[in-house]
Design goal:
The chain is an all-alpha fold. The protein folds into two domains: 40 residues, no CATH class; 38 residues. It contains four helices and no strands. The protein is elongated and about 50 Å long.
Length: 93
Amino acid sequence: MVQVLRNDPCLRHTELGRVLLRLLDMSVALVRERDALIENVPAHLASLAAEGAYECAMAWQIFGEMLQGAGEQAGQHGTTEVPQQRQNDGAVP
């Protein structure tokens, strides 16, 4: 899935598109390295790290729902055009 997104120039050629791709790459790495990461979190930080993971999961859930809604709304208007993104604005989606 990430590779398909990576191949689309709409994401590859914008700063925010590249940010999204990097974030997705990190999530793929998390899945791949999950066990090793868990083993390397010190016991005294496990609860705090878990809290951070839950917050990230919630952020991804909300982001996905918003993205899905935007895609459905664009489909209702008969357009597949992606709104122009400002270059180098530094915001994270």
